[in-house]
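Side project, low priority. Logging it here so it doesn't get lost.
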Amino acid sequence: MIRHYEVTLTAAAQNVATALGLTAATDIPFRQLFFQTFTADAYLGGSTVSTSSFGMKLLATGSPITTVGGFDCGPLKLSDFYAVGNTAVVHILGIPF
């Protein structure tokens, strides 16, 4: 069953799972994650990426959906990602194992 999350980012880098209020029990592994950003650009990266060099730029409305992972890889958890984007609203769809 696909899971949907929505997070509004601030100008400071934040852990995606923490921003969504997820705990270890609710931060389940996914085989694929889809991100789409609205209202402002956002940046997405791993926990070792600094706020000035995030690995992925998520463009605001009208951009393609950004996909992370493939059906043969994983696990991916939302706590693996950090995001920043002042007032950016990010929709996240996840396909669990």
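Brief comment: Residues 3-56+75-96 form one domain.
Revisit when time allows.
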